[in-house]
Specification:
The chain is an alpha+beta fold. The protein contains 12 helices and 18 strands. α1 packs across α10 (297-305), α2 runs parallel beside α3 and α4 packs across α5 (114-124). It is globular and about 60 Å long. 45% of the residues are buried. It binds adenosine-5'-diphosphate (ADP). Adenosine-5'-diphosphate binds at residues 129, 152, 154, 159-165, 191-194, 199, 222, 225, 265, 276-277.
Length: 392
Amino acid sequence: MTREPTEVTPPRGFPVVGMVGGGQLARMTQQAAIALGIGFTVLAARPDDSAARAVRDVVVGDPDDPEALAMFGRLCDVVTFDHEQVPEPGLTALATTDAAIRPGPGALAHAQDKIVMRQALTDLGAPCPAWLEWGPDTTVAQVAAHVGWPAVVKTSRGGYDGRGVWVVADAEELGEVLAQPLAPGARWLIEQYVPFTAELSAQVARSPHGQAVAYPVVRTVQSDGICKEVVAPAPDLDPDTAVAAQELALRIAGELDVVGMLAVEMFATDHGVLVNELAMRPHNSGHWSIEGAVTSQFENHLRAVLDLPLGDPRPVARWTVMVNVLGGDHPDMYRAYRHVMARDPDLHVHMYGKEVRPGRKIGHVTVSGDDLDDLLERARHAADYLTGVVVE
Ligand code: ADP
């Protein structure tokens, strides 16, 4: 049976932060909340959600239900999010409570809808892939002229981990994608296919009074739309481009009034960076910072939403590599887990307390040091071994 707190009681004077969403981001935020000594609660959809298994003062309720959000908000001084997909009525219900909503609904809108995001970034003059919205009067000729082939088609809302993203080669394939039903409130975004040389993520933390810090720009590797690997700092990135990417992320955070962590996912091209998308929460591209930075993204997210002075985002090692552990075909990974620890005591293994399902993010490994090739080999081996790809 689940315990539903009627109040969360940290030591006197310490605030309560509530995170909507019970995934691994909330679970890892709790680790930072413990060290800070603040009150922390999550609104989880199910009692076996990753964070619900770890957070004492968990509220189990439907994050799409405005009443559940209002009830949750009344427990908290500040409400923040481990995903951005809280529907508008829920945010309105939260606003009826005394809790501060951080990031606020105005900022969050840019992470909820990719067309709202593209329009705002274009208005700010931030470099983006060429794009257009597929409306009732849009023609294939306009797509060909403005975006070209191949094109990338995205649902503006509700997509994640590559779900809701299609690369189409021509008008026929475009027609097939557009024939699919859209989720309520979603629209079709069509973008230029960017022949990127690397994917980057520039993370910043920003507080309500405007203090902001920038993490080193990292390289991310995605496959099938899922983040597989992160290297911090991004190798082979020239320092001017890295600084430009950090400045762009800081500017976006300020202009959109983001509070908390902001990840600006970017494409590196031969002609500079283009913004792919924004996430206003701790992000997979920042898990390396738990061991690899002076202050982790989870701690800085909490400091930022509480308007506390921010922590130092600098790396503590020359390189830190993070590789995601995805679910494989073996439901029981405990043997593999022991092997990985025995093989490499320097490796940090994080498991999210989730049941194994093929392709699901169930954990990650992190390792820091001076020899990037060696770190990549060790982290990839460990993740593959845990997933069941390597059998020794
Ligand atoms: P999600 O919101 O599901 O993470 P993204 O918009 O980030 O979706 O796209 C997922 C992945 O698809 C990206 O990480 C990138 O590898 C690829 N992708 C997205 N947009 C483009 C584009 N315009 N050109 C080339 N590849 C793209």
